[in-house]
Amino acid sequence: MVKRRQFIGGLTALAGSYLLSACGGGGSADGNASSTAKVSANPVAKARSVSASASGTAMPPAASITDSAGDVWTLANGVIYRNGSTVGNTYDVSLVLWYGGKIWHCGTGGQFYVNADVAEEWLPCNDPRIDVAPAPGSFYGMNGHADYNYTPDEIVSILKGMNCTSYRVGVTDDPKDLNAVIKLAKAFQSAGLTLLVLIDQGVYESGGVMASESVAYDRGYSIAATVAKALQPYGVTIYECGNELTRQDATVMDFTYAGSKASDFNNRNWPIMRGVMRGMIDGVKSVQPSAKCGINFCVADVGASDALWDGRQPDGSGGYPQVRWDITTWHNYEVYGDLFDIGTDGAGPGFDLATYCKARYGVPLIVTEWNTGPEKSASYRGTYISDRLAAFYDARKSHNIQSVMYYVLDSGNSTYGIMINGKPIDAPYNAFTSFTSAHADT
Fold it and tell me: Does the keyword Signal feature in the UniProt annotation (predicted)?
């Protein structure tokens, strides 16, 4: 696999196919957003060749833990040390754990903490070793678009033929788009399928980035309340509030950054993004208090998700409104890295992102977009689908993975789609249906 920074550096030649332009499950509401990736001048970090402790190593009984960067962790009198120096403000620590590519600790009171990518920072979480299984019934998912030529009944038939039980589609409050999704929702309700609706509102308005957090909040609230009011009668209960908002020109400092540090993101425009996210969640809940709202991230964006969850700015300041979601949603294209071993610098040691999300946020995870690259052959894509579905399926009950949604049903060509104008593309389609037929969603 091509390293992430190396690949993203060539995205301009591929017309931004991976970032922004290909994603979303529907049309973009952000007409001012750029789809050209920025390229960092920084060299790829070199990973040290080390022998890390086995995942699951705990101290005690171990005398020390070696992480994947070669740092040695010890515990003495309830205080944690890394290479002989204290790490943040730790005391009364009873357990240090190396698990899923991260260092965790537990105090004598039973509260777990994880060491964030900012080395001195410990964030509260649950025990990462505890298996969590979401409710079955919507694991195999697919992305689509509201402007397809397929009728709603044809989409239902196609999905059932692939053993898919969930479908993601984007919408705004534009009446034409909304009416098309209402028709889909009616058909899905009758068929007993799950429709995940992406509310595709971003941080831009005419003329540029929205003026303030309150303006962004009000816009998010309005569009989400309109969408939820229209779709509630037809059984829609899951809404994704925004698409790749952490990966806009206005919000990420450099598209090649992994996103594992809060400082990877734009401090000035952060309140705008936070406002529109909060507004969409509150707008949905004003109509459907029991609906589930997701917030979407990409690559290794735990720096963004942690800061939003805890009410912090990228500059490290705190005390701001928290963004709390019911479902963590993530995009995991091949170029971003393996969801269960994703790198934080494009080449260095990775960590288990799904385990991190499970322990840190305590809500289900939906991979709302996944695929390989647009330049890959159909045979490569078929093999990739089989491999990824196997990995996702094996982890679904331990990592709280509710659904994995392939991008996309039909892209009009062979770049991403699994069929064209109703005709399957043999290798990816057969790989997908062969797996879903042999592995029940139970």
Answer: yes
